[in-house]
């Protein structure tokens, strides 16, 4: 984490991406044997090479209940990049995340999804929905040796992944009620929910390909969908945990502030010694919590797992999942 603290220009995600990753590669390499000891299986959930998912299975002695909660992870990459499996020397990235949560009793799922230029709105969100559907429908096939608790499904999304989760939840007609009812909570990490011409954290050519023209962009971003959903008295959201890095780019920080503000209720959350109170707009939902990831930049949270540094955010997610499962 000392390297992360020393970085300048944290608003420039492409600039800090490779150096941040490479700073953690040696630390992950030291734990390779432990990370790879966690069982992982690959499944096909759709018709293309981008429709594959990996399931990380918890050791049976780590599961606290008869069945293990499911956490489905949507990684980031700006709609144009991202892989569930990377090649060496960064091949432990995301494997470390799956192994970390599985080691602690969670069935962890990482799906790939279609990317620009082969995808336009809302196809990646549809892919995410289909991955969730596959896990629910094929739980028995995919649950050896640990049964999956498909009544307790959670989603974790970083950056673009958080965007896709919110789109999946809010775009009218995309998520069937039988899937929505099984999603107990979503953890949204460093999401960009509003995109303007001044946004510095995106490739605007990729955004134009994905969303369409300016009018389509304005109506399709998560904040726009949230505003539309707030007018529907029947629209419900699961519990929400919003995670932001201390050193997020300014446009992402502002986007999260606006997103929280609009979520629909007044809440107070103690976060890293600071008290955040947001007055929201009336959208129905069960719970919203905020957690600031101390010392992190936009890239670093996933990289820290199994290094013994900066893992507090993941422990917070685990505690949150346990609380939601315990509230049945």
UniProtKB/TrEMBL annotation:
Signal peptide: none annotated. Residues 53-166 form the BD-FAE-like domain. GO terms for molecular function: arylformamidase activity. Keywords: Hydrolase. It comes from the Eukaryota. The keyword Lipid biosynthesis does not apply. This is Alpha/beta hydrolase domain-containing protein. It comes from Obba rivulosa.
